[in-house]
Every structure is written in C-alpha cells, then in structure tokens.
Design a protein that fits this description.
The structure is a homodimer of 195-residue chains.
Chain A: H1 2-11, E1 13-14, E2 20-21, H2 23-27, E3 29-30, H3 32-46, E4 53-57, H4 62-72, E5 76-82, E6 91-98, E7 103-110, E8 119-127, H5 131-143, E9 146-156, H6 161-167, E10 172-180, E11 187-188, H7 191-194
Helix pairs in contact in A: 3-4
InterPro entries (chains A, B): PRTase-like (IPR029057), PRTase_dom (IPR000836), Pur/Pyrimidine_PRTase (IPR050118), Xanthine_PRibTrfase (IPR010079)
Subunit structure (chains A, B): Homodimer.
Pathway (chains A, B): Purine metabolism; XMP biosynthesis via salvage pathway; XMP from xanthine: step 1/1
Chain lengths: 195, 195
C-alpha cells in the first residue's frame, strides 16, 4: 500500500536495525484519514471471505480494526492485555510473550463476542515475531471459529513471525512489509515477493 | 444522543447501582457504525471551536476519539497507561487513580504530539469520578495548550466527576448522561438538565 509506505518513510523513525517507531500516525498519535484508507484496503482484500468479526489486540490494533469493520459492516473485538488474569470465567485466554518488552501478558476475549459460527479476520498493527498473532489465533481456535486470515499494517519481514505463520498455511495480508531497517533506512519487499 | 441511549438500554448490562457494562459495543467489542455516529455528533458540537487535536486515553477512548478526529480533520492522540514510568524524558505524565480497580496508573503523552499552539478536545468513554479526565487535563496544562472542552460518551451523572469539572468552568459535552442505575434500570438526565 503505497500511501502507507510513503508515510512510514516520511514520518517513521528508525531507532535501530530492528526497531521502527510509528508513534506519529499509528501507535500513539493516530492519523484518522490514513486509518480510513487502511480500513478500505483490508476490506477490499477480504471482501469475498464472509468475515463476520474482526479480532485485534489493544491498543494499537483498535484504530485499523475498527475502520476495517466499518467498511466490511462487522464488529471489531479487541482482546484485553493483563499481567495475570484472576477472573477467567467466561473468557478465552492466551499468553503472549513480548520479546521487545521481555514480558508475558495474558490476553482475553469474552466468550460472548466470539462464537463458533464466526468467520474471523485477525488484525494487528505490527507483525514481528508473531507472538501476538499466535495468541489471537489460539483464541479463535478456542472459540471454534473459522479463521479467514490475518491483516497486518506493518510487517517486519526480516523477523520470523510472517514465515512461521505462512508455513502453517495461514493467509496473511500485509500492507507494508519491511525488508530491512539497516543504516537508518526503511526498505520494503515488493508485494509480489511476499505472497 | 438518542441512538446511543437506545443502544445502552438494549445492550448495556447493569451490574450494580454504580456499574454499567457496555462491553458489547464500546469497551471490548466495538460497533463501528455507532462509533461513526458518535464521531459525527462530537464533531458537530465542537466544529466552531478550532480544535487541532483530540486527546484520549487507551484503550476504550480510541474508537470514539478517532472517529471524531476523522470528521473534524485532526489527529487523535491516546495517552498510554503504565503501572509506573521509568522513561519519562520527553513525556508529559500524570497520575490517574481508578476507584473501580483501586489502583493508580501513570499516563503519558509524548511532547512531540501536544504543543502550546494546540486547541485540544479531551475525550473519554466514561465519566464517573473524573480522575481520568483530570489526568488528561493535567497533561493539556503541562503542554500549555488550550482546552476547548471534554467530550464524554457515557457520563454517570450520579457520580461526582461531572459536577467537579463543570464547577471549574470546563465545558463538557456528554452524549448519554445516566441519572440512575437503580433496580437494574438505566435512567437518563434530560439534555437540558445537564447543561
């Protein structure tokens, strides 16, 4: 998605060879028209898949998930993160390890909002090691729902998450797939090379 | 806002005389068309105020804040919550006590995204005791920015936050102001009585 790639190049900050900061339009300050364009792009890619629900993770997944839900005409559910869960009645839960923060959080989704009849589009802002996506997939599986695929705003294609998930036969749609952050520069994979 | 009040009556769950759960459309599962209507309503109420930025708090404030920003044509910034902040360089921070959870969190906003030239609309999903709003106002003040007002999706008008803030001369626009949750029923104040 050229508009997003241009925004990453103009406004993203490369902090190291593995860290890209996009706080100015996605993770802290949100650019609403860009989120709308992202929602339209995901909706267009998944419009034939009979999606009934979008599942994401708080907080940075909420804006793109909601805009995609708006265009597709389906609700967006955000899993909640907690250090540890005491009340797990009536909740699907999974553990997600963050390598960047070196901590493990439980994530949870109420059983009220994910049913076995659902066709789910899992979404997240970033895909790096794939831990958050795996946690969300675990929850989809617990619900017995059907997974249509995963929509990722920015993939760090040089990290192992994307490969891991694609090898399982999961469809991943990535709007900007970064091949390298070396020397402070952002490089992208060509769209054709990802698929 | 009648559409929102109807949704609260049909889908909200009264858990006690002070707790209303709206997880099915606002706090966990999000109803995108309702968020769009909420965004349009807030934008209409604040369209003459020269808003340059919306400031909210993760996670449940993000959806209504982004939709309002989309209609007003301005970015939405969400303050981040953390148990305690170690890295506070280049951040505005404030403490927010939650009476329901009986815990105090620090909230923070990067100095990059809030400037003294900004005219800020503070938004949140709920207003009860007013602690979150006070934390956000503290951050607006630290930035030296101008506060246009506060936009609240659901106010629990029988709790003290709204009175406290209005007595300071702050403009609050509330879309649904609850007068009582007694006997498992939701009652609303008339719009005219709030102002």
């Amino acid at each position: 998605m050229k508009k997003l790639q241009d925004k990453i190049i103009s406004d993203g900050k490369v902090l190291s060879e593995s860290v890209l900061k996009v706080d100015s339009f996605l993770n802290h300050q949100i650019d609403p028209p860009l989120m709308q364009a992202i929602g339209e792009e995901f909706a267009s890619r998944f419009k034939e898949d009979g999606i009934t629900k979008i599942l994401t993770l708080e907080s940075s997944g909420i804006a793109p998930a909601m805009m995609t839900g708006l265009v597709l005409g389906v609700p967006a559910v955000f899993a909640r993160k907690r250090k540890s869960l005491t009340l797990v009645d009536h909740m699907y839960t999974a553990s997600v390890h963050s390598f960047t923060k070196n901590e493990t959080n439980d994530i949870s989704v109420s059983k009220d909002f994910l049913k076995k009849e659902d066709v789910v589009l899992v979404m997240d802002d970033f895909l790096a090691n794939g831990q958050a996506a795996l946690g969300l997939l675990d929850i989809v599986e617990q619900a017995g729902a059907k997974l249509a695929g995963i929509g990722i705003v920015i993939e760090k294609g040089f990290q192992p998450g994307g490969k891991l998930l694609r090898e399982r036969g999961i469809r991943i749609e990535t709007l900007a797939n970064i091949s390298s952050l070396e020397n402070g520069n952002v490089s992208f994979y060509e769209e054709a090379k990802i698929q």
